Amino acid sequence: MTARKVQLMKVEELPVGAGREVEADGVSIAVFRLPNGKVYALRNGSPYRNSPLVEGIVSGEYVYCSLYNWKISLATGEVQKPDDGRVQTYPIEIQDGYVYITL
């Protein structure tokens, strides 16, 4: 399958310091905008029992799983030790005030 860029929303529609759920190609994706302006996208499910990351607490460049408190890097999707796992991340591009994701 060829990678393609999909427009999600205007940047201003993303809450700062929290997640927003979007669906693209039938996949639930959590999109986060940080106070420093960076935007990240991850599959909306933690590696442990698939709990929704969009409901997690954002701290720095990490999101804490709302059900199990796993600390997950927004940049890499890596779960911080001693827990183990990884969440699918998606490249983000901001263009003309809109957020695009590459699938």
Write the layout of secondary structure elements.
Elements: E1 5-10, E2 19-24, E3 27-33, E4 39-43, E5 57-59, E6 62-64, E7 71-73, E8 89-90, E9 92-95, E10 98-102
Antiparallel strand pairs: 1-10, 2-3, 3-4, 4-8, 5-6, 6-7, 9-10
Quick recap:
Keywords: 2Fe-2S, Iron, Iron-sulfur, Metal-binding, Nitrate assimilation, Oxidoreductase. The protein is built from no helices and ten strands.
Characterization of the model:
- One of its GO terms (molecular function) is oxidoreductase activity, acting on paired donors, with incorporation or reduction of molecular oxygen.
- Keywords: 2Fe-2S, Iron, Iron-sulfur, Metal-binding, Nitrate assimilation, Oxidoreductase.
- This is Nitrite reductase small subunit NirD.
- InterPro entries: Rieske-like_NirD (IPR012748), Rieske_2Fe-2S (IPR017941), Rieske_2Fe-2S_sf (IPR036922).
- The structure is a single chain.
- The chain has 103 residues and is an all-beta fold.
- It is 0% helix and 43% strand.
- The chain is built from no helices and 10 strands.
- The strands form 3 sheets. Strands 2-3-4-8 form a 4-stranded antiparallel beta sheet, with no helix packed on it.
